[in-house]
Amino acid sequence: MRMFPAMRVKISGLDPHQQYYIAMDIVPVDNKRYRYVYHSSKWMVAGNADSPVPPRVYIHPDSPASGETWMRQVISFDKLKLTNNELDDQGHIILHSMHKYQPRVHVIRKDCGDDLSPIKPVPTGEGVKAFSFPETVFTTVTAYQNQQITRLKIDRNPFAKGFRDSGRNRHQQCQL
Amino acid sequence: MRMFPAMRVKISGLDPHQQYYIAMDIVPVDNKRYRYVYHSSKWMVAGNADSPVPPRVYIHPDSPASGETWMRQVISFDKLKLTNNELDDQGHIILHSMHKYQPRVHVIRKDCGDDLSPIKPVPTGEGVKAFSFPETVFTTVTAYQNQQITRLKIDRNPFAKGFRDSGRNRHQQCQL
DNA sequence: CCCTTTTCACCTAGGTGGTAAGAT
DNA sequence: ATCTTACCACCTAGGTGAAAAGGG
């Protein structure tokens, strides 16, 4: 499934005439598993993290493009897909439920991206830079723990419009 | 709007490790305008062609890719879009209605595709080859002239499924 | 007990030909 | 008279949270 809200970034300082790949991966914040304590509305440590999963990378679909192209637009990662299926073969990013994660944005000069692949770790070294934003750390769930999150999603995600204005007309049907 | 059925090609003889763009353009077959004569079920010349339109090229969305990748798959042009609006700014291919056209497939070695653009003619010369298939010539219309074409489209295009099995249940509605 | 999966109605987004109205 | 456009019901394709069912 997709992330919502999606990560969106603006980039400056690229060489306008150089080609780049932009990619995202998602790394564990710590070595812990969490549970949500309802009465205190807090995430609490609930043991050690599950075993690591295969590394996956989301390569932004506009890649490769020139620095000029990347800098002209807001770069959105709304098509990135997550799964908790460790055997996934769709190229989705694999995460454990009930763990804390940090998304990272990678800017990769085209000549350094030869072994860039959705199923290999992001290359490191010359011509590759990584950026992460602490305010984007999140905790994975399979069911919402927090009504404020549910409200945010229903109010802001266009695909959830069916749950706004909820009471009326929702269960009427027509048998022809 | 899209073409249906779409052009689909298989390519062989590429260098597996060379990168290529694949593109399509659509060129006039002759300098004539046509009309359909119903009683004889034939297209007849009905004057000279309208004035030329801005050149457009559909660059296959998998471009660029290696010869190996291109040769492994059937290459479909089903996302290509046509319009009769000469002022189109969506990058669609512009055609006159009631004219005869021939689609062409272009194979462009990556290093020869530097000035490849949806709004410029396909480059020619070394590293660029064009292919056309006479059986794919077609005549443009804004309304179908021929019931066999209508039937083919309804029977084969998944989006037209609503017109199959036509009589039953089509006009029932439910007023809540 | 708590977490996960499945199924559902309800959306977004957009591709069909029919039909009636519009244009030349 | 003939071609074109705008609108419509009906599809495909797939993204929502709720609720029920499943699982350790």
From TrEMBL, chains A, B:
<keyword id="KW-0238">DNA-binding</keyword>
<keyword id="KW-0805">Transcription regulation</keyword>
<keyword id="KW-0804">Transcription</keyword>
<keyword id="KW-0539">Nucleus</keyword>
<protein>
    <recommendedName>
        <fullName>T-box domain-containing protein</fullName>
    </recommendedName>
</protein>
<feature type="domain" description="T-box">
    <location>
        <begin position="1"/>
        <end position="165"/>
    </location>
</feature>
